[in-house]
Cyclic pyranopterin monophosphate synthase (Campylobacter californiensis), 156 residues
Amino acid sequence: MLTHLDEKNRPKMVDVSPKEPTLRIAKASGVIKMSKEAFDAVKENTGKKGPVLQTAVIAAIMGAKKTSELIPMCHPLLISGIDCDIEELGDINAFKLYVSVKINGKTGVEMEALTGVSIGLLAIYDMIKAIDKTMQITDIVLESKSGGKSGEYMRH
């Protein structure tokens, strides 16, 4: 039986009350590719809407925190910490955003990390779209997770 369907085939939120809290960490990443002109504007902080990468980090944090409001079966969580890192990929005029989410809780934070990445990359798109509307958001993936019943996962 699927965990998000009840015996009458209706959607349900999983009951995590019997579970013991454990330290859980999930890290996700994604890439936004753009024109050389847009890449340089982001890098040199010359975009008209302000500091693009700093805004993307704030958006990523907000996105992770609001995941349960966006994804129907996600539990509202008391997140312990969120870390973001942005890597320049100059050879392909792109930025790679990493979001790591930590909790001591009864359910994992993979969706929070993935949502944080998605929202952070969308913020970059929004702030620089006047320069390049052809940007591509790609490769949003779970990099790793730890804690909980399913244990460790590391993308290879």
